[in-house]
Design goal:
Two copies of one chain form a homodimer. Chain A is α+β, with helices and mostly antiparallel strands and 223 residues long. Chain A is built from eight helices and eleven strands. Chain A folds into two domains: 147 residues, Jelly Rolls (Sandwich); 71 residues, Orthogonal Bundle (Arc Repressor Mutant, subunit A). In chain A, the strands form three sheets. Chain A has a four-stranded antiparallel β-sheet. A four-stranded antiparallel β-sheet of chain A has the order 2-7-4-5. Chain A is elongated, with a radius of gyration of 20 Å.
């Protein structure tokens, strides 16, 4: 069941709300339910499932692509207040690619089912526009990621990643393996380990089993 | 002045036409004009100019991004019948990245000015939806390009490129320099030259000054 806070989240985040008639609002509320995803859970993968629109209430969702050999490249992340639209790509005729979507941490979301969103979208041009405008925002995220991947040399990417993770967890100590970092950056473990050793030698970080401590954030930022 | 064929192109390609009232149609026709671009001409670069929507009547337009060091990566191309929408990104609030756009060959287009498209888009939700749906199609193109660049090894990318160019020009002889190919593939001239020598040694192609002849298309396809 939807609670009062869920209703106000829907009203504030779905910009098409004011363009819905009574029947459409009822359809929307009946097609929306709270859902919980556990850290590491796969929400959407290729064309297998179309789980609809997700409004993130808490936690972090990662959107990425995977090569045939299993290499992953992170496109962007969604946090509290964000809306995941590529999980409903089956509803959007102009989107003919697919991505993988994982819960990166435990997540609470409001889920609008694909069937419900599809009906609303077919009958109300404002709903359709809403989803395509969101897709355009994600397009912008992907272009940013693409420029980082193609044009930034790896030392700068790794430095940016460490600073970002440190800011996110509000701690200078990062508990991540080199393997995990490689996965996020679409690189190989050996490349990450080599660059981290270089960072340690330069005095930017200290390394311990399973953790990395930033000791010279200014140095990393200069990269 | 717009000719009869231009009018029917607008009517057939602009799916919002039927949702325009008389005044809006007049605004559109007054804001649209035929334009010619010469091969190599830059149409749009970063945030400098917002030239509006382009309907391609003939020729080929290339959309690409450029690194600070001048490296180019082609995102996609538009040909006769296609519509260029990122040249009007200033009108679209949800798009906050920018690309470079060049005429790859001599081009004839119909150009809808940014001012005209902006007014139509602000007053008619179907016009706005049209531009965001087109952007979503280009999003799909970019995802495809990204997967090619990140996940396909270079021999396969070069083989695919040669076959594609050969199909496009309906000829086994390609008149392109290694430098040009490198530019299209976001690579370096030396890398292209090395791989082409390898292809020649394997009997897939023969090389001459300024041209490449495909002699074993099947071999390239197998890559």
């Amino acid at each position: 069941m939807l609670r009062e806070e869920d209703l106000s989240l829907l009203r504030s985040r779905l910009s098409f709300w004011e363009h819905l008639n009574e029947g459409e609002r009822e359809l929307l509320l009946n097609g929306t339910s709270p859902a919980h995803f556990s850290a590491g859970q796969s929400l959407h993968c290729g064309e297998r499932d179309c789980i609809g629109i997700l409004l993130v209430k808490s936690g972090s969702i990662r959107i990425y692509i995977t090569s045939e050999e299993g290499r992953e490249v992170t496109l962007y992340r969604l946090e509290a207040g964000d809306i995941c639209v590529l999980s409903a790509s089956c509803v959007m005729s102009s989107i003919d690619f697919d991505v993988s979507i994982d819960a990166e941490t435990d997540c609470e979301v409001l889920q609008i089912s694909a069937a419900c969103f599809s009906r609303l979208s077919a009958g109300n041009v404002y709903v359709e526009l809403f989803s395509y405008k969101l897709a355009a925002e994600r397009f912008s995220d992907v272009m940013w990621a693409m420029q980082q991947i193609l044009f930034t040399s790896f030392d700068r990417r790794l430095a940016a990643f460490l600073l970002e993770e440190s800011a996110k967890s509000q701690s200078a100590v990062l508990h991540m393996t080199h393997e995990q970092i490689a996965k996020y950056l679409g690189s190989a473990r050996e490349v990450v380990s080599r660059m981290l050793s270089y960072f340690a030698k330069e005095g930017y970080v200290t390394l311990a089993r399973g953790s990395i401590t930033i000791v010279d954030a200014e140095g990393l930022r200069r990269l």
